[in-house]
Amino acid sequence: MSETTFPRVAVLGGAGTIGTTVIGAMRGAGWPADRIVAAGRSGDSLDAVAEQYGVETSTDATAAVLGADVVVTSVKPQDMRALLAQIAPTLPADALVLTPAAALPASFYESLLADGVAVVRAMPNTPARLGKGAISISPGTHATDAHMDLSERILSGAGLVVRVPEEQIDGVSVVSGSGPAFFYAVAEAMAAAGMANGLDKELAEALAAQTLIGAGALLEESGETPAELRAKVSSKGGTTLAALAAMEAAGLQGVFSAGANAAIARAKVLGEELQQG
Asked: Which intervals hold domain Pyrroline-5-carboxylate reductase catalytic N-terminal (predicted)?
């Protein structure tokens, strides 16, 4: 494969959870190790990344971006301003900046980097670590279809990649970003209900987890909608329908709506705080 086929990618924050997820996705998709460099502060952590994935490493972000075609900025949002100030002087003008950091809009990056630098925002979730993620990508002002295609190639090994306009990222974050935590909360509630009805904790948690895993797999593979599958389990006059009716009466939809609204409100506040520095 040529270098054009596999552009050089610098993953800043490459020893962190998101950074290693991106590296793992690329390597799993066949990206050559010598076309990836992981940069971070800790040499020991980077050694572990090098051992696992065979990639180059560096403790100098400025050096890592030299000659890079793509720079993945997988650091915490509160550290982003300092990182961009560090790499801006040496960032290649035609490089793509792919950022999985939450809350910060593409305009934040564009204001701190050279004019015309292409920025693509990504919103991954934690199952991406297993290649089962749901990841959205959104173009900044200067990002072209080619930049979006390249971003999708880089992230495709982490799961489903969808393209959305940046103004829809808050909606994505509610469904897939925070969604895994909602899923775990439902699993906890199901297990608690089982324990309240005589099951021991280990059994209740195992049954709840496997039930949700199986239901998710059926939803993915059957081609049926959630409503259609729910109806198949809910026999008229049966126990499941009685349970669902009780949940609706207790405000099930309102609970999720309240959670979504709270998450979006917090994201807006966080974004404003981070942009103010």
From this structure: 8-101
